[in-house]
Amino acid sequence: MRTRLTDMLGIEHPVMLAGMGGVSFHRLVAAVSDAGGFGTLGAATMSPEELADEMAKVRELTDKPFGVDLLAALPERMLEGSRQIVRGGASLFVAGLGVPRDIIDVLHEGNVLVASMCGKVRHAVAAVEAGCDFVIAQGTEAGGHTGTVATMPLVPQIVDAVGDRVPVVAAGGIFDGRGLAASLCLGADGVWVGTRFIATPEARTVPGYKDALLRTPEDGTVISKGFTGKTLRAVRNKWTDHVERHPEELAPFPEQMMRAIQANALHLGGDEHAQVDPDKECYPAGQGVGAIHELVPAGELVRRFVAEAERALDRVMSVR
Ligand SMILES: Cc1cc2nc3c(=O)[nH]c(=O)nc-3n(C[C@H](O)[C@H](O)[C@H](O)COP(=O)(O)O)c2cc1C
User: Fold this and answer.
1) Counting atoms of ligand 1 from 1, which one is nearest the CA of 97?
2) Which of 51, 143, 299, 316 has the greatest number of C-beta atoms within 10 Å?
């Protein structure tokens, strides 16, 4: 399956692992890249030392290309982070929040491509005007911090706005090859998948997370400000219900994040030995969660995405 994205990234399949903070560490990243997809480290919760270590460990496991995702909301981390990404041998930087204007040149000089997460058409236009190499159109169905526009209308509108200049990657609620085929039909050049890759043996998670994904139906997630103060889609639980009933108790970002941490509802950094209470814990998940019934090795998932998309596209051709 060759697209502008596979050509640009030098990969076989247009399937990208989302750079999920607290989940996308070296084992998962290497497994996806090694299978011909593109793995992205979720570095938002990593210290600079941990990021260096994680990049080195990816390199020990595979010589295939990989990327790093950081939140552009933390400007002080960005410049040093971008130099580190160049040194660590990553070939893509993804800005999780905002357009990474100040560091695009440093990254490009180091032969690192730059992409930006976008939840609105105007974010995508700003990212392309700032020099980003491609954009990721993330719909509200997505797990983690998310906006209000759904993937189905967002992707083609972003394709119309910037698709003649850069590749567009679809994200949010995509969990199998039918979603990949649909994204290609909407004009996207690939997919960026989060939640489905958490339910893999290679994903690092806080306790109870994978079980929560296996038991949660498609309507079992909610967008809540209760964990960080920003709108974040996660598995609905007693904590999100409480916040929904008592919005007056919410603080803005980042104070609400500190409160959630203090209340034992948020464990950043994917600590597999944390003492978590699943009734309160932040388990970010997209609406595709209802389709997750088993853990599947990440490389196998990449291969299934492609095989299923090919079948779906054959079916589309046969109804013409
Ligand atoms: C646990 C989790 C953590 C995430 N952390 C980040 C992050 O640090 N930076 C970012 O750009 N996106 C983050 N996201 C959003 C993903 O990049 C991606 O857009 C989203 O997972 C796609 O939707 P899906 O989960 O339905 O596949 C996160 C998502 C999840 C589920």
Assistant:
1) 11
2) 143
